[in-house]
Amino acid sequence: MIRKVFEKIVLLLACSSALSGQKALTIYNNNLGLVYEVRQIDVPAGLGQVVFSDVPAQIKPASVQINVLKSPSTLKILSQNFEYDLVDGGRIFQKYLDQKIGLETRSRGNVQGVLLNAAGANVVLKNDDGSIQVITRTDIVTTIFPRLPQGLRTTPALIWETENKGAKRRAVEISYLTTGIGWQAEYVGVLNAAEDRLKMNGWVSINNNSGATFENVKLKVVAGDVNIAKRAPVPQMSQMHQLSRAADAGTAFQEKTFFEYHLYTLQRKETLKDRQNKQVTFIAESSTAVKKLYIYQPQVDAKRVKVKIELKNDKASGLGLPLPAGTVRLYKADADQAKLFLGEDRIAHTPSDEEISLTVGNAFDIVGERVQTGQRKLGKRKRESTYKISLRNHKKTPVQVRVIENFRGDWSISTTTLPVLEKTAEKAKWNVDIPASGKADLQFTVVQRW
């Protein structure tokens, strides 16, 4: 019996020692971060107060969860205050209203008096004899305050009122949510000369404006649309333990499914400074099969033909990874092998085996035009319309343009000069081949019912 108790004590001490100093930062797409930390703190005996400092200025205090690792029943957190009234010149002046301060000025030397006002361009002091001094701020060299006013802090902190019936030194787990921190994926793709393959790599771009620096943390990012209520829930501690121990050592992000999201864990610890934007590679360069398309949607743009790059996010094409939402920037090397920027587009969260379509820009040498050549009423709620689409190619090579027409209600194509490539409930698509330095027409008639 004694041996079993001893083994349990050893196990608890080992776990506490292993967890101590552990830090993890999980960042979500929607300006939200989850901080997890194990810290050793000193707690006074009986009723007392603990200052838990180095927390972000944008922390959500109501999201704080505290777990005492050893003998939790002997330590109670009675209340919590979040203090963020930080040291600032203006705040010190406000705190010293109706109190005596000293000023070193250029024109009058050292002066003292009771501070009456310091809100504008002047500082107003009351002398011992009741007279008033008005001193311009530009005349002030130094302001002397007797001490730091009560209530001002150099950094934001959580203040816990505690009742401790156990040891003074305690290991505690703490987790909380903070705003002011977010991430997005950034992709760079380089087209080959034939424009049928794309070399692509990906970055995780993290922007930290939370008001805190996170040093030497296990970094995770979550791809997915997390719903945020007025009081956002925090994952259970048991889940956090599992996440923080899940990955092996390495240098890149490891991807895993987590609930209905995808979790990317960096295989090394990172430091993320306040007011810093950091990029970390998370997709190594891969060569992917792509298709270049010219798209003409006259109801979207009357004359311009868009250039798109389409690919499939599967292993056969060279990818096959869950791709977080982000910006894809495309480049291509010119005759001098200098890479030139072609355009950029955003992608949504894209699972494996899904299609990706990227709008690069508008084709310079291909022009479209759409005119209605006829219309007649076939009934009270039935109409027939005829359209002609003309496409002109000023390039020295032939091109194929995909024409997309959108329709509403119940509709059908009654006649067409080219076969319909694809038809859905809302649109029809045609492929139109245009010779070099030539033109081609598409004519069709649509019958609509409503």
Characteristics:
single chain; 450 residues; mainly beta; SH3 type barrels; Immunoglobulin-like; 9-stranded mixed sheet; 7-stranded mixed sheet; 3 helices; 29 strands; elongated; disordered N terminus
Summarize the structure.
The chain is 7% helix and 57% strand. It is mainly beta.
Write the layout of secondary structure elements.
Elements: H1 2-19, E1 23-28, E2 32-42, E3 46-53, E4 65-68, E5 75-83, H2 89-95, E6 100-105, E7 109-117, E8 122-126, E9 132-136, E10 140-144, E11 157-164, E12 169-179, E13 181-191, E14 197-208, E15 214-223, H3 237-244, E16 253-258, E17 261-272, E18 276-289, E19 291-296, E20 304-312, E21 326-333, E22 339-347, E23 355-379, E24 382-393, E25 399-406, E26 410-416, E27 422-423, E28 427-434, E29 439-449
Parallel strand pairs: 1-15, 13-21, 19-25
Antiparallel strand pairs: 1-2, 2-12, 3-11, 4-12, 5-11, 6-7, 6-10, 7-8, 8-9, 13-14, 14-18, 15-17, 16-17, 19-20, 20-23, 21-22, 23-24, 24-29, 25-28, 26-29, 27-28
